[in-house]
Amino acid sequence: MVIVNITAFMICLLYLSYVWEEKLVEVLPVLTCILVFALYVLALIRHLSLIDIISLVIIAVFFICFIKSNKDKRMDFAKASLHNMTRASFITAVILIAVVIICTSHRVVTWWDDMNFWATDAKSIYYLDGFASKYGNVSPEFGDYPPAGQLFKWYFLHFSPRAFSEGLAFAGYYTMNIIFMLPILRHLKGKNVIMMFLMALSLWFLPSIADTFGYYGFCADLTLACVYGGFLFAVTDDKDDSARKENDRNFYYIRLALYLGVLVLIKSSGFIWAAFGLVFFVVYRIGTKNCMRNLAVFATPLITGGSWLIFCLMMRRVTKTTATAVKYITTDEYGLSGYMSDYAKAFINAFVKLPLHQEKSGLINLTPLAFYICVCLVVIFFYRKGLMPKKQGRIVLLFSIISGALFYGMIFVAHITIFANETQYLEPLGMIMSIERYGVPFTIGMIIFLANIWLENGECMFIKEESVYKSFVSGFFHKYGTFLFFVLFVALTAGYENGYYGLIGYRNYVDSLLGVRAGMIDEDARTFLDKLEAIEVGSGTRVLYIQRDDEPRWMENSYTGMEASPVSIVFRNVNLEDASGDWMEAEIRASHAFYLYVETAPVYEGAGVFDEMITDDIFCYEKLYKIEDDGGKLSLSGLP
Known about the structure:
mainly alpha; Rossmann fold; 5-stranded mixed sheet; 5% strand
């Protein structure tokens, strides 16, 4: 079905480009948003695979309509499509995406957060054909994390119908990020192979200016940055509505609404960036009278984000971070961190001295403070040189100053509240990693935003008298000057080691990383995983796995959870010698599990706590039990 899905996608892309009269690289992000929404609805009803049938229907309807339309319309559409597909921007985009998909095909999951949720959940969606049923989500502590990135990974994953492919998941992740950066290419002219290559390379390395995590795992913050930066630039399309064609107006507002609708479905913090985006939209577009269209821009993220929260409430998907944040707001159970002064020192040290991309290159290493100042200076330069109107330029400057200050302040507050006990952030290196990761929507988002403005309007900096362009060199610089400066900026500030690792360098470590993963699954966990084969997964199920309390295994448990997906595992460390039957029954109920598994405990006899629950003759360790609860009595029946 790969060809069918790609064909249907291309038909939609070409048709929307034709209707809206926009370049393909500008329509691609909009169509990606539409695809994400379609997958979201299908995942809610657990029928993601219906996208194949929908693709077939799209192809059939298109060809019927194409054949029935008159000759002039067919020729007009064909010419427009051919022209759009042969643009330098689209050719560069296709080659870049194809190279990234091929080069990342051997990637394996290694990042800690991927094991905790991003990869584990994607695997669950792949096998369940949608979201898990009530109490069936595979990451119980991260249940309300939004699904947009996961769904786009699934779109790639389902091209391998027989086996879960981590490489395809990475291909989907990187493709989604790249798609929202592609409008940067829209003014690329001619078919200069060298310039096309340099721009493709620059897009790949652009996030490495201020991000490391996106090259090592499924960092949702980077996806937020790409969508957020694209939204900010889309707002600054400052033609008056009265000067727009109807199709142009439709594209402008539809793009804004869809971007925000997806933004809140990428990560829980997406609503913060959506709020910043809406403030920017209101201030920048103040005085416009398109009330209904403005309302649609506001309503879309509320509908998509609200629907996900309602679904999470119905399915009892809760995140421990969300729960902690709510307790901070609604109760006095938690106070400020006792390490507040130490956190402040680490934050200031990292903010002022350490490079955002962690590695120190031989060129320019931007610290968070240096980056923040540079953004403000660039905006001033832009409106002083006429790249944007002064009034709007001052709005952008004020917005950059306030939004950056607010978010960096929020990051600090998060460390002395929600992350109060995570002492790894007391060291400047740990703190810069946190500032880098959670600040990516601001840093990379602003780079994408400003890069779009530069490439849209920067050509005015190179306009000279006509006689100047008689030589090839000066003509080339006039044609590609803005792109050369963009390439130079990325070249001077990028983190090359990170970019190289994400695309090619990782191959040197695949075997060793797989060995590390295998080593994290001990004999007890391996025995448990083998027993799971007896479970009918259905639309998702949950197992309570009781472990010995002789040593904490929270890190190893993440690897076990990844292997067990789509089965959801709730881990509990219990000293069965000290546990009572009533306490154990309450713990089983609180887990909302469908099955119970207790690993072997040779040092003591702990089976007595299960005596009143067991329906078999004798309780056995290392055996799966079906939990049956009628509200009064809880019983355990062993699986064969």
